[in-house]
Design brief:
By secondary structure, the protein is of the alpha/beta class. 17% of the residues lie in helices and 32% in strands. It is built from three helices and ten strands; from the N terminus they run E-H-E-H-E-E-E-H-E-E-E-E-E.
């Protein structure tokens, strides 16, 4: 099972939509900052499950601040990250939140910088910004039948 993960589109949806078309994921995730941009994904891929969380630039959003998403038997904790203080590179509070919920993967955005690391048995992945900034990126997460997990960051040209 494969998920395409986007964050921080900031009303620039063209690259996100093209990546989603090319990826052909089983599940789509938008990690906020212009969570309403996820509606473009919903319109184009109405039969693909879509999970969305609100970011710090989504003050009137109906989306939750965080959620647990099932991905091929793996619990995935998704959030924008601002509520966990990820701005300064410390993701320990985010890791703890994922561990509390029994998740082995935590996805976050907010910093506009793609990053991947493993801490305390939790894979932590930031897809970067798909819509704003000098370097734009997104990510895929694939869960294999044996429970293996592969996370990959993709950069737009």
């Amino acid at each position: 099972m494969k998920a395409a993960v986007f964050s921080d589109t900031h009303a620039n949806t063209a690259l996100m939509l093209q990546a989603a078309r090319d990826c052909r994921a089983d599940l789509l995730i938008h990690l906020g900052d212009h969570d309403r941009d996820a509606e473009a994904l919903r319109r184009e891929f109405p039969d693909t499950p879509l999970y969305v969380v609100a970011g710090n630039c989504d003050p009137y959003s109906a989306a939750p601040l965080a959620a647990v998403v099932p991905l091929g038997g793996v619990g995935v904790y998704i959030c924008h990250g601002h509520q966990y203080g990820v701005d300064y590179g410390d993701v320990s509070r985010l890791v703890y939140a994922a561990q509390e919920r029994g998740c082995s993967l935590a996805l976050y955005g907010h910093t506009h910088r793609a990053d991947r690391q493993e801490i305390g048995g939790v894979q932590v992945l930031n897809p970067g910004s798909a819509g704003k900034g000098r370097v734009r990126s997104w990510a895929t997460v694939e869960v294999f039948p044996n429970g293996g997990l592969a996370c990959e960051i993709h950069y737009f040209d």
